[in-house]
Automatic annotation (TrEMBL):
Domain ABC transporter: 1-231
Protein name: ATP-binding cassette domain-containing protein
SUPFAM superfamilies in the cross-refs: MOP-like (SSF50331), P-loop containing nucleoside triphosphate hydrolases (SSF52540)
Source species of the chain: Actinomycetospora termitidis
GO molecular function annotations of the record: ATP binding
The organism's place on the tree of life at top rank: Bacteria
PROSITE patterns recorded: ABC_TRANSPORTER_1, ABC_TRANSPORTER_2, MOP
Domain Mop: 284-355
Keywords: ATP-binding, Molybdenum, Nucleotide-binding, Transport
Listed Gene3D superfamilies: 2.40.50.100, P-loop containing nucleotide triphosphate hydrolases
């Protein structure tokens, strides 16, 4: 496993990227930002496609300045699989080891091992034209890792996939990255990619790092406009359980598991603030998760009012930052203001539980 240290400035036309980022050995870091924030320039600098004006990129103690792309020990997985159309899936995966000097037999054995890792052994003899989008991306994952890179770069790896295929490929990539322990940096627009895959988030804006920290912390307490915008979901960290998710204080948040999770696995429960109901007293009736909160803030949110939760006296700390979007009429009927204690409630059918970064 390799530690990545980046402190560079890269100018492209009138745009300048000036960032300092460290990715610990074996860590997965997601880079987010709006269009034009500098994500592609950052990734290009790491891959050797853009030469820095100043600074250094160090990987496992090696300075990468001036090192040719094919000698950087950096793997890249992009939006498109970009497989060689004239080669079979096995030969596509074997291409990297062959380029590094491995013999034909050794390269094919490596390819078969990685095809098995991504559950694609049955696809070994197919050419790219015979593969679906999800199958092709599985082969691309195997090809990116078959060279045993010290750094894996993920450039919107699920953007081109059908929505029904994405969860399975995302889950596969998470499993493979964790199993190999490869240091990984991912550029994405999808907050769920970051939640499922990343240990930490780095938010770029106008070529600068404006926010950085553990994934759950950044999403629950955003400090930049972009992070606040993408953190449009309520997030509760905990451990997977048969009913949904169990928090550190033992509260069970009922929810569905779109992906397979082991009992006790680190996970997060996600739900929309619009799915949260607010009550003056503990609600009765249909099964739902209910927690006491102290209103920390009330703010306009389009045609709704966003009620932001703080921790009540003796209450669970994980409720801080949770939001409920309600109508102005509901606020008037509740007669609440900041400082009041109320109850937030959400039905299990509105909650999805996903695996979380470490």
């Amino acid at each position: 496993m390799s530690r990545l240290e980046v402190d560079v400035a890269v100018t492209r036309g009138s745009f300048t990227l000036d960032v300092s980022v460290t990715v610990g050995s074996g860590e997965v870091v997601a880079v987010l930002g709006s269009n034009g924030a500098g994500k592609s320039t950052f990734l290009g600098a790491l891959a050797g496609l853009h030469a820095p004006d100043r600074g250094a990129i160090t990987l496992d103690g090696r300075e990468l300045g001036g090192v040719p792309v094919h000698r950087r020990r950096v793997g890249l997985l992009s939006q498109q699989a970009l497989l060689f159309p004239h080669l079979t899936a096995r030969d596509n995966v074997a291409f990297g080891p062959r380029s590094s000097g491995a013999g034909r037999r050794a390269a094919r054995e490596t390819a078969d091992r990685w095809l098995a890792m991504v559950d694609a052994t049955a696809l070994a003899d197919r050419r790219p034209a015979e593969l679906s989008g999800g199958q092709a991306q599985r082969i691309a994952i195997a090809r990116a890792l078959a060279c045993e890179p010290e750094l894996l770069l993920l450039d919107e790896p699920f953007a081109a996939l059908d929505v029904d295929v994405t969860p399975a490929v995302r889950s596969l990539l998470r499993r493979v990255v964790r199993a190999t322990g490869v240091t990984t940096l991912m550029v994405t627009h999808d907050v769920l990619d970051a939640v499922v895959l990343a240990d930490r988030l780095v938010v770029l804006d106008a070529g600068r790092v404006v926010e950085s920290g553990p994934t759950a912390e950044v999403l629950r307490r955003p400090r930049s406009a972009f992070a606040a915008r993408i953190a449009g979901l309520d997030l509760v960290p905990g451990r997977s359980c048969p009913e949904g998710l169990r928090t550190t204080d033992g509260t069970v948040v009922g929810g569905m598991h779109p992906e397979t999770l082991d009992d006790g696995e680190a996970a997060v429960a996600l739900f929309a603030p619009a799915a949260v109901s607010v009550f003056r007293e503990p609600p009765k009736g249909s099964p739902r998760t209910t927690v006491p909160v102290r209103l920390a803030a009330m703010e306009p949110h389009g045609e709704l009012v966003r009620l932001r939760a703080g921790v009540p006296d003796g209450g669970p700390g994980w409720v801080e930052g949770l939001a409920a979007d309600v109508t102005p009429a509901a606020v008037a009927q509740l007669g609440v203001e900041p400082g009041d204690e109320v109850w937030f409630a959400v039905k299990a059918a509105e909650v999805e539980v996903h695996p979380a970064g470490r």
